[in-house]
Design brief:
Blueprint: H1 7-22, E1 36-40, E2 43-47, E3 50-67, E4 71-76, E5 83-84, E6 89-93, H2 96-124, H3 130-155, E7 158-160, E8 165-167, E9 177-178, E10 185-203, H4 204-216, E11 229-234, E12 242-249, E13 259-266, E14 278-284, E15 289-295, E16 300-301, E17 306-311, E18 317-328, E19 331-336, E20 344-347, E21 359-362
Parallel strand pairs: 1-21
Antiparallel strand pairs: 1-20, 2-15, 3-10, 3-14, 4-6, 4-9, 5-8, 6-7, 8-10, 10-13, 11-12, 11-14, 12-13, 15-19, 16-17, 17-18, 18-19
Length: 375
C-alpha cells in the first residue's frame, strides 16, 4: 500500500505531536503579586484650635457728600472710583454769591465796630447814653455772627474728602443746580477702605469657648474686647492671607438666631477687601499644642464615623476606626483610635482592601512647609 504524504498531512501530524506532548503537563494558576501601597506612621505636629466663621466685609467709614448750599455745580475734581486723600478737593459749587455775602457781612461788622468804638469814646464825655453803647455792642456782635455764617456758607462751596478712602462715581454733572430750597443734594460717596471691618457671628457654644480661651490666656472678657488676632481670607484665596484684630463684640446674643455679632479690623492697603464681599474668618482659641496627625486624604468617613486603613506586620490591610479633630495644612488631627507605631495607608488607597494583602513601602511624613521628613 502506498502512503502519499502531502504538506497538509505534515501539519496535522505536527499539531497532533504538540497536543500529545502538552497532555503530559498540568496547568497551574499563578496569583498576581499584592498591590503596592505607601504607608506612614502618625506625626506629632503643633496644632492650634481655631474658630471658623463666615463674615462680611464693610467699610470702616462711609460718608455721603452733599451740597449744603444752593448753587450751580462748577467743577468735579476727581476721577470716578479713584483713591482720595483727606482734605482733597472734590467738588466746587458756584462761590461768587457767597463771596459777596461774606463781603457785605464784613462791611456791616466794620461799621458796627466803628460805631461801637465811637460810642465808647462819647460815653466818657457824657455825650451819649449807656443804652446806645449797649445797642452798638449788640449790633457789632450780631454782625460778627453774620460774618461767621457767611464764611461757613462760602466754605460749603468747596467740598473736600473727610478722610483717606476711595470715592464712588459722581451722581450730579457739572452745570446742574444743587442744594435747592435748602435740600441737601447727594453728589457722591466716600468709603474708608484701609482698614476695613469684617463682621461675623458666633453661636452660643463657640462664644463660651472664646470666653474660656481668653480667660486661659490671661485676657478675660469683662466688658472690654481682648486684642485677639483674626485671620481673614476671601472665597477664592488660599488660606488666610489678611491679618486683623478683634475690636468689637455686641452686648447680647440675638435671640432669634442665638448668635453674637463680632467685628475685626483688618488692614487693606491694596483695597483687596471690598465692602459686601463674603470672607472666611479664623480666630485662634488656644496656643499651639503637639498632637498626632495623619494626611487628611488618608481619612475616610462613613455613616459609622471616621477611619483609616492600616497595614499589619503580616501585610494585611485593616480598617481602623479613629476619632478626628480639626484639619490644618492638609493634615488631620487624630484624637483617639490610632497607635503611634501604626502604619497608615497614605497612597494607593484604591488598592488597599480590608482583609487583603499589600506590598507596603514606608514613607515618613513631613511637616507642612518642611524640606524633608520630620524627625
Amino acid at each position: 500500500m502506498t502512503v502519499i504524504r502531502t504538506a497538509g498531512n505534515t501539519g496535522v501530524v505536527l499539531l497532533a505531536a504538540v497536543l500529545a506532548a502538552g497532555c503530559g503537563r498540568s496547568n497551574h494558576y499563578e496569583p498576581p503579586p499584592p498591590p503596592s501601597v505607601t504607608v506612614s506612621r502618625p506625626l506629632r505636629m503643633p496644632i492650634t484650635d481655631y474658630l471658623n466663621a463666615t463674615g462680611t466685609v464693610a467699610a470702616a467709614q462711609t460718608v455721603d457728600l452733599v451740597a449744603r448750599v444752593e448753587g450751580y455745580l462748577r467743577s468735579i475734581d476727581f476721577v470716578d472710583g479713584s483713591p482720595v486723600k483727606k482734605g482733597q478737593l472734590l467738588f466746587v459749587i458756584q462761590p461768587e454769591p457767597y463771596q459777596a455775602n461774606l463781603a457785605a457781612a464784613q462791611a456791616q461788622l466794620d461799621n458796627a465796630q466803628s460805631e461801637y468804638q465811637r460810642q465808647l469814646r462819647m460815653i466818657k464825655e457824657n455825650a451819649t447814653s449807656q443804652a446806645n453803647v449797649e445797642k452798638w455792642r449788640s449790633s457789632r456782635d450780631q454782625a460778627a455772627a453774620q460774618v461767621e455764617i457767611a464764611r461757613i456758607q462760602l466754605g460749603y462751596t468747596r467740598i473736600t474728602s473727610p478722610f483717606d478712602g476711595r470715592i464712588d462715581r459722581h451722581l450730579i454733572d457739572v452745570g446742574n443746580l444743587v442744594g435747592m430750597s435748602g435740600q441737601a443734594t447727594k453728589l457722591a460717596s466716600v468709603e474708608q477702605l484701609d482698614p476695613v471691618y469684617v463682621y461675623f457671628t458666633v453661636n452660643e457654644r463657640d462664644l463660651l469657648k472664646v470666653r474660656s480661651s481668653a480667660a486661659a490666656a490671661g485676657n478675660p472678657i469683662n466688658g472690654k474686647v481682648p486684642p485677639v488676632p483674626v485671620a481673614v481670607g476671601l472665597q477664592t484665596e488660599s488660606g488666610y492671607p489678611h491679618q486683623g484684630t478683634l475690636d468689637f463684640a455686641s452686648n447680647s446674643l440675638d435671640t432669634g438666631s442665638g448668635t453674637l455679632q463680632l467685628r475685626a479690623t483688618v488692614p487693606n492697603a491694596r483695597f483687596v477687601l471690598l465692602p459686601g464681599l463674603f470672607a472666611r474668618v479664623r480666630v485662634p482659641l488656644s496656643k499651639a499644642t503637639e498632637q498626632w496627625v495623619v494626611p487628611d486624604r488618608a481619612v475616610t468617613t462613613d455613616q459609622v464615623g471616621s477611619y483609616v486603613l492600616t497595614v499589619a506586620p503580616d501585610h494585611k490591610v485593616s480598617q481602623t476606626r479613629i476619632e478626628i479633630g480639626p484639619a490644618q495644612n492638609g493634615m488631620r488631627v487624630v484624637l483617639a483610635g490610632l497607635a503611634p507605631e501604626s502604619e497608615v495607608v497614605t497612597d494607593g488607597l484604591q488598592f488597599a482592601v480590608p482583609g487583603n494583602l499589600v506590598a507596603p513601602t514606608e514613607k515618613p511624613l513631613a511637616l507642612p512647609g518642611a524640606d524633608g521628613p520630620a524627625k
